[in-house]
Amino acid sequence: MEKILLHGVEWQFALEIIGRTIIMFLLILLVLRLSGKRGVRQLSLFEVAIILGLGSAAGDPMFQEDIPIAYAVVVLFSTVLIYKFITWSASKSLRIHRILEGKEMTVVENGQFDIKHENDRDFSVMEFFAELRNQSVEHLGQVRLALLEIDGTLSILFYADEDVRYGLPLFPGAYKQVQVDETTEHPLACMYCGFVQPATSSVMESCVRCKHKQWTIAINTKRIS
């Protein structure tokens, strides 16, 4: 074990590594402050890629004796200048902004999951269930519009209490498949897209929106603020 952990260690250089690490850590903090971001929640994919690149540039001088810290400083501040130029360009051009940042995505519209772009999204329906539950959404009938922002947050517009409709329940206790007859006394919600069949109507075997065949009882409870 001693051979694995300590063989060939130069203790004088080990102390130098501590100093190099402190300097590079402070430089990284300075660079991140210069970028203008205040928290990780504000970072886009482009900015995450920039930070990963900064980490790579800062890592080597911390423990490689033949790489002077001055080289890392040049890389870090060059990256900041490039970042500032690209973000300025993105502020002037919506096309560049979309390329770098991506585009917000509709998750729920008029109480139903949006399925027009379902092949474009990287999230499963169950992940959206969890995100909506975290926002105290009990069923889709409470939601007029929900957008997945480019930073990964979910923005929701709710129906007023008097406008809440029947919708697909999102909590496990109510989200259960039911067997239906030819007619039903309760509104039914498609368990995949949230389409609601009215009560006492002839029951469709498959959903007209997504063609899935699993149904659950829809609910229309009001939101609790």
Structure description:
The chain has 2 domains: 2-100, no CATH class; 105-217, bsu07140 like domains (CRO Repressor), CATH 3.30.240. Helices cover 40% and strands 12% of the residues. It contains 6 helices and 7 strands; from the N terminus they run αααααββαβββββ. A hairpin with a 5-residue loop joins strand 3 and strand 4 (154-158). Helix 3 (45-63) packs antiparallel against helix 4. The radius of gyration is 26 Å and the shape is elongated.
Question: What is the strand and helix layout of this fold?
Answer:
Blueprint (H helix, E strand, L loop, with lengths): L1 H5 L4 H25 L9 H19 L5 H24 L1 H8 L3 E5 L2 E2 L11 H10 L8 E6 L5 E5 L29 E3 L5 E2 L17 E3 L8
Antiparallel strand pairs: 1-2, 1-3, 3-4, 5-6, 5-7
Helix pairs in contact: 2-3, 2-4, 3-4, 4-5
Quick summary:
With 225 residues, the chain is an alpha+beta fold. It has helices at residues 2-6, 11-35, 45-63, 69-92, 94-101, 125-134, and strands at 105-109, 112-113, 143-148, 154-158, 188-190, 196-197, 215-217.
Based on CA atoms alone, the radius of gyration comes out at 26 Å
Instruction: Give the C-level CATH assignment of the largest domain.
Output: Alpha Beta
Overall mean pLDDT: 79
Assembly status: single chain
The residue fraction in helices comes out at 40-55%
Largest sheet: 4 strands, antiparallel
Total domain count: 2
Helix/strand-derived class? alpha+beta
Order of helices and strands: HHHHHEEHEEEEE
| Annotated CATH topology of the largest domain | CRO Repressor
